[in-house]
Specification:
By secondary structure, the chain is of the alpha/beta class. The protein is built from 13 helices and twelve strands. The strands form three sheets. It has an eight-stranded parallel sheet with strand order 1-2-7-8-9-10-11-12. Helix 3 runs parallel beside helix 5. It is globular, with a radius of gyration of 18 Å.
């Protein structure tokens, strides 16, 4: 099976990644992927946040716009062009926005953008977002056929105006689009959070990044209590609109989840699950992200 990780902060792999050279971290990423049987991955390069919550690395352009830098992503793609693609960031107020978006696909391995702003990366905290201030960005993405991954947790309803306005633009809601429950939250309340996300499945241009079940599930790996609720989500969207992702460097962190998940757990709870057909697993674990990103094998 062609297994593609829909999100990996690959530049953070390894215990000393901040002090390691980029080549060594690329090597460590390949070792980690090979160890669990992941063929390819979508890199979301991230070293931290600046004072305005821009994801680093990056900086101010001469026109005042914030522009990303992706040295690790570019190196990884140059060394392993068949195993990696990467996501960029675009300042929705960039004076040269249309030119910037049109140029993304000309960069080797750049397959789309990821959108978030404000505290915790939740775009709905940006007053411009609910006021329609991101329409220019999304229009440029629709024209250039650049898929949009977007953080709208936990207010996924704020995306509806854009789903209607840009029916030909592929949107992917990041990380299931729900707020992660506290440890003492009952299972019933945990899984009720998926109801809002299931209702959005009526929009055919919307896809769902399925990740961080270790934060949502009440029971430990392989998360048996979660599976019936996941089944309902897949029934709503269809497996062809579900993109599996490990977000491995975050999923494994103690303190972020009641069940910190090694890379193998993030994959095998689904790969080994009897609730889904082989065809559904093929879509969720690889085919869907390749289709969304127009990324051929």
């Amino acid at each position: 099976m062609d297994i593609v990780d829909g999100q990996l902060h690959a530049n953070q792999i390894g215990p000393n990644w901040r002090d390691s050279d980029l080549d060594s971290t690329v090597d460590a990423t390949i070792v980690a992927m090979d160890a669990v049987g992941v063929n390819a991955a979508v890199i979301d390069e991230f070293t931290g946040l600046d004072e305005e919550f821009h994801m680093l690395p990056g900086g101010r352009h001469s026109n005042g716009a914030w522009r990303p830098e992706r040295p690790f992503s570019q190196l990884a793609v140059s060394r392993y062009p068949h195993r990696f693609v990467w996501l960029s960031r675009v300042d929705h107020k960039d004076p040269d926005l249309e030119e910037v978006v049109a140029g993304l696909r000309k960069q080797p391995g750049c397959a789309g953008i990821r959108v978030h702003s404000g505290f915790d990366g939740n775009v709905w905290r940006d007053l411009d977002f609910e006021a329609g201030g991101y329409s220019r960005l999304f229009a440029a993405c629709q024209d250039a056929r650049v898929p949009v991954f977007i953080m709208v947790t936990p207010h996924s309803e704020t995306l509806e105006r854009y789903l209607l306005e840009f029916p030909d633009l592929v949107f992917v809601i990041d990380h299931i689009g729900i707020a992660w429950p506290d440890l003492d939250v009952a299972p019933t309340e945990r899984y009720a959070r998926l109801d809002k996300i299931r209702r959005l499945s009526e929009y055919g241009n919307l896809h769902l990044k399925w990740s961080h079940v270790e934060r949502l599930a009440h029971d430990p790996y392989p998360y048996p209590d979660l599976i019936p609720h996941f089944r309902k989500v897949v029934d709503s969207y269809g497996a062809e609109r579900i993109l599996w992702a490990s977000d491995h460097t975050q999923a494994v962190k103690a303190g972020l989840s009641p069940h910190p998940a090694p890379y193998s757990h993030s994959l095998h709870y689904l790969l080994d699950c009897g609730a889904f057909s082989s065809s559904e697993k093929e879509w969720m674990l690889g085919r869907a992200v390749r289709k969304v990103l127009d990324w051929s094998v």
